[in-house]
Amino acid sequence: MKEKIASPKKTREIINQYNFVLQKKYGQNFLIDEYVLNKIIEAANITKEDMVIEIGPGIGSLTQYLAENAREVVAVEIDKQLIPILNDTLKEYDNIEIINEDILKLDLNPLIKEKNNNKPVKIVANLPYYITTPIIMGLFEDEVPIDSITVMIQKEVAQRMQAEPGTKDYGALSLAVKYYSKPYIVANVPQNCFIPRPNVDSAVIQLKKYEKPIIEVQDKKLMFQIIRASFNQRRKTMLNSVSNQLDIDKEKVKLTLEKMDKPTNIRGEALTLEEFALFTEILTHLNG
Ligand code: SAM
Questions:
Q1: Are 230 and 271 in contact (CB under 8 A)?
Q2: Residue 77, annotated as binding a ligand
Q3: Which residue in 13, 60, 97, 170 has its CB near the most CB atoms, within 10 A?
Q4: SMART domains this protein is in (predicted)?
């Protein structure tokens, strides 16, 4: 590999050379740890066949590793101050395209159609932590063709994504992620692997997307409304939260739980994704 961007020395050098002022509002914490970068590349299983989309390349620390291993990298960066820097730090690579856009506003579908024949891409990133959930849910909900998402995120959020029923971390996010993908925490990453150091711990998580949903549910929107209502007030029973928040007849909710052989004082945290789907199906039929 050409000289690595991701060393503490080189990172400081680039920041100083361009008088770059780090933007806290964009969650800019640059990776400086080679071991972690190799771990990300290895987990993402990138080959010369792959098109990779990186969200937030920063000064190019991870982009460089991606370009070495992938066929093509498209990197989407919101901060226009970083574009000339990236054009310079990555100038030796001819398989990188840098797009100056807000990932939350960019439709990736036409890009993947044009550049990858609509075949699934790999998403790899050290995400800006302030928008982790909207980015990931946006990718899933917009039905972007994705093979896997391998990303650095805040450790607590990674734990919530991977959490199982009955644990304190289990919630609406765990269920949304599990509906679309199989989560796996690849590594925990301490604060000293970044410049500047973030004030939270981090983890690399991989979400391997299912080719088709693992559960069947007619009214997906209602299922996620029920899930959100069940966890909005965690300490309340499902009977109360669902009937009050979604304005559904309490008797119908009670009957649904009884048909599922569940106690009527059960809380959302005890239900699996399959059970939320079943709950939704039964309730829909009672309403219908
Ligand atoms: N990939 C680099 C690294 O690992 O060193 C930088 C990671 S840094 C945690 C997050 C990056 O995302 C920053 O470069 C930031 O400017 C960029 N970013 C923040 N919000 C964004 C958005 N809405 N769309 C695209 N990029 C964004």
A1: yes
A2: yes
A3: 60
A4: rADc (SM00650)
Task: Please tell me the pTM assigned to this model.
Answer: 0.95
pLDDT tens-digit readout, 108-141: 999 999 999 999 999 999 999 999 999 999 999 9
Token pair belonging to 147: 């093979």
CA nearest ligand 1 atom 5, residue: 30
Cβ(61) to ligand 1 under 6 A? yes
Q: Is the CB of 62 under 6 A from ligand 1?
A: yes
pLDDT in tens, 180-234: 999 999 999 999 999 999 999 999 999 999 998 899 899 999 999 999 999 998 7
Whether the predicted pLDDT of 287 surpasses 90:
no
